[in-house]
Write a structure and sequence with these properties.
- This protein is an all-alpha fold.
- It contains 14 helices and no strands.
Length: 271
């Protein structure tokens, strides 16, 4: 019974904390009757911080409660208001709900989605391997003149990789990005290398690594771990060991925990 009472008290205290915070928000709204821009900005930041905190804690109902109060008090919403909510749905693997926020809620609120807004939803669809949805959002960005950056295109690369389409992923990397004035980064190449590694095509993965070197794109432990993982899957322990002992060292890349975990797994298999 004592534990139940403690649970109730904790719940009540959390509720009281939220109410106190909301009352503070109301106080901030009522104070500064001059309607000064700085006062408005302070209130906006206050609400946005609380929405972000609730989403980070996994409390979407609490976040939406803050959003409702924000609207009731006539406090302007912006992309910082909605981004944590979309990120929450992305983490919960619900790209459909993230997109609803982007296309319906922000639209109805007169908030123009920015590059980060679109990228969040694109990432969510990419994880599911839904190329059509991810690409449709990129086209929407173009039609609305929203800047496309490397993160947006990395989502397209990731979508193709998740859909077991490494050729298309590499095409995005080598052609589509450049055509849009976007430069592929380490993450772009790592995702594409992983695409070839997943289907066991180590030569194609190696060619991309060589391309990274030729273009001066920084390699990191993740780049080489992806290659080692492919070698382990393909029962090529000697190649995996060579990647670790020679290639990583020559490239000035330090092995990380995952590198040694992969090699440990290989030895445990008796390969």
């Amino acid at each position: 019974g004592g534990m139940g009472g403690m649970g109730m008290n904790m719940g009540m205290n959390m509720g009281m904390g939220m109410n106190m915070g909301m009352n503070m928000g109301m106080g901030m709204g009522m104070g500064g009757g001059d309607g000064s821009r700085s006062s408005q900005k302070q209130r906006q930041v206050f609400f946005n911080k609380n929405i972000k905190s609730m989403c980070a804690a996994g409390n979407i109902d609490g976040a939406r409660q803050w959003l409702r109060r924000m609207k009731e008090e006539g406090c302007n919403r912006d992309t910082y208001t909605y981004t944590p909510i979309m990120s929450y749905y992305k983490r919960r693997q619900r790209p459909d709900l993230a997109q609803r926020v982007l296309e319906e809620e922000m639209e109805a609120d007169g908030v123009e989605p920015d590059t980060v807004s679109y990228s969040n939803v694109m990432d969510a669809w990419a994880e599911k391997g839904n190329v059509a949805k991810t690409r449709a959002l990129l086209e929407r960005m173009k039609s609305r003149n929203v800047e496309r950056n490397v993160r947006a295109y990395n989502a397209i690369v990731k979508a193709h990789v998740s859909a077991s389409q490494p050729e298309e992923a590499q095409r995005v990397l080598e052609h589509d990005m450049g055509a849009d004035g976007v430069h592929a980064d380490t993450i772009s190449y790592n995702i594409a290398i992983d695409g070839w590694a997943r289907v066991g095509d180590i030569p194609s993965a190696r060619l991309l690594l060589d391309l990274m070197k030729a273009r001066g794109v920084r390699r990191d432990a993740h780049t080489y771990n992806t290659l080692i993982k492919a070698c382990v899957r393909a029962n090529q322990p000697d190649v995996a060991q060579r990647v670790l002992d020679e290639e990583m060292e020559a490239d000035g890349v330090r092995p990380d925990t995952l590198t040694y975990t992969l090699l440990g797994r290989m030895k445990a298999m008796g390969v």
